[in-house]
Amino acid sequence: MILKHIGFLIISAMKYGTLFCDGRRGKKDKAKFYNYSYASVLESLNWNEKAKVRALLSSKEYDKIFTNIQKLPKAINSLIKFANEKLKV
Fold first, then answer.
1. Alpha carbon distance 15, 87 (integer Å)
2. What is the pTM of this model?
3. What's 81's DSSP letter?
């Protein structure tokens, strides 16, 4: 059971990385995949919370994961804004 929940957290984080490495070229594709990445980050936050509530992570592990994941939405929003304002195609 513990591995299942930790696995969901890892899969959510992996989806985020995979979406960024996908190599989309056009403006619409990039914006769409940035939005998917944003959703994956939120999913990772959700699984981190579930792992904490179920005592699958120590407080230190939870804090480290939360601190790192919490930075990502702002970075992704910056990419979405950049794509919408600066990209032409």
1. 24
2. 0.66
3. H
Asked if 35 and 24 count as a contact pair (C-beta separation under 8 A), the reply is no
Length, in residues, of the chain? 89
Name the nearest CA neighbour of 24 among 15, 35, 36, 33: 33
Residues 9-32 pLDDT 10s:
566 655 555 555 555 567 777 777
Domain limits of the chain? 2-86
Question: Which two tokens mark 40?
Answer: 């994956």
Q: Does residue 12 contact residue 43 with C-beta atoms inside 8 Å?
A: yes
CA 69 to each of CA 35, 73, 75, 88, 89: distance values in angstroms, whole numbers, following the listed order: 16, 8, 11, 30, 30
